[in-house]
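Bench log, entry 3. Co-assembly request; chain sequences pasted below exactly as received.
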Amino acid sequence: MKQKCLFCNSYIKSKRQGLIIFENTNAYSILNYKPSVPGHSLVIPKQHVTNLKNLTGNTLEDLIQAIPETFDKLLAIFDFKPELIPDYYKSLIYEPPESESKEFAQFMLEHPLLYNRPISYNWGMNYGYKAGQRERHLHIHLFPRSESGLGIATAMRKLLQIDDK
Ligand SMILES: [Zn+2]
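Structure output for the full assembly:
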């Protein structure tokens, strides 16, 4: 299992590369390797589970606690180390963890909000294959939202092609 799971492996790899954004006893967070908005992060339990109900001990608590902590760390990155995020996307182009990562990273590097400090965020989980879950290791997506970006409601309406009139 350890050899095959992207997120079990990514903990060790990200730690070695100094790419862990936040970490507590049972959870950690990293920038997503297939980002859909600048700073899009993943909050991941260290325990390898697919289903929320299989998390044991304080893992669920640590996982949830890591969400606002990760956002605070992202704010600090935008404020003090703004190059860190584009540098990470550049690294995805040279060494993509997945073939799709390159395309996602390129899109981010050209994104108009690349350096825009977020003020809000959405978080959520893709649960099961049809919901978009590709990795069997449970994880939470954190999407930073900045002042000039689309709010989630407007973005969803555009995605669903609902007329805004
Ligand atoms: Zn795993």
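Strands lie at 22-23, 27-31, 41-45, 118-124, 140-146. The chain is about 35% helix and 15% strand.
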